[in-house]
Amino acid sequence: MAGPAEEFKRWGFLACVDYENWPADKVAATLASQGYNAVEWSLAHFDPRRMSAAELAGVITMSRDKGLEVSAVTVQQDLVCLDAEVLDERIALSIDAAAAAVQSGVKVVNVLTGPNRWEDGHVDVGAKLAEGKAWGIMLDAYERMLDGFAEVGAEAALEPCWGGLAHDFHSTGVLLRRFGTHPAFAINFDPSHFALVRDDINWVIRELAPYIRHVHIKDVAGTPGHEGREFIFPLIGEGRVNWSEMFNALDAVGYRGFMSVEFEAYRYYSAILKNDPGKASEISMQQLRALEAYMPEGLLK
């Protein structure tokens, strides 16, 4: 295990919650001052629909100038969409963001399958659309997206996520069987979604190891429900994720990439942190430093 003088050098933070309303340089400066080594940007700060190529590249350059690598760009479009024109736009946006990221040396782009059940207007699979048809729409869109990513040299890091068609190990297997040999197919491993459905995280990591390009740090408490009211993503360490088991599994498969906090403890954020994202990343770093005690020495190198 890690000694008292050792620390993990690849902690990152997804610039979410109210960081999305801050200027990118202020976000980066705050995270760097708190001890982070990386930032994960979303469309709030890296959006090819409203930013020029120079502006997009400037976000990456600025991050590095402040001492942060960009671990990934998060796009996460809902690919279960009945409007063909809207779906085409979502695929194009994902590819354009990936191309802009690659131009600045960032290859990993975080994506979902959909439906994004926390977003207004999502398709209610099962009630409004047969599951088989939903998978057909998504798989066709996913293939087009992957082909576009491959053309620009990016990797589409799928995050199996609650509510989506790919939400646990077994549903992710549908995409593995279809796209496992595609050069752009990858995985963003978020343990909270696997822990939510009681998947064996040790086993899942070993099975997904060839594809894992990025890791999220997020905990979960509760059980999955149709409307998502039976679970929360609490502060790190308060939930079901066995961090020692996860870190040992990642070490065993040779993962040496970034691990990025995705802060979604919304009630704590509102009631205690008063919607201050700087406090959210600060308290997260305290928790991350505590997690280093559970890390095997190999992972710390």
UniProtKB/TrEMBL annotation:
Pinpoint the Xylose isomerase-like TIM barrel domain residues: 31-289
Any idea which GO molecular function terms this record carries? isomerase activity
Taking the record's annotation, the residue ranges forming a coiled coil are none
Q: Which UniProt keywords apply?
A: Isomerase
Q: Does the keyword Lyase apply?
A: no
Does Ribonucleoprotein count among this protein's keywords?
no
What InterPro entries does this protein's entry cite? IolE/XylAMocC-like (IPR050312), Xyl_isomerase-like_sf (IPR036237), Xyl_isomerase-like_TIM-brl (IPR013022)
Name of the protein: Sugar phosphate isomerase/epimerase
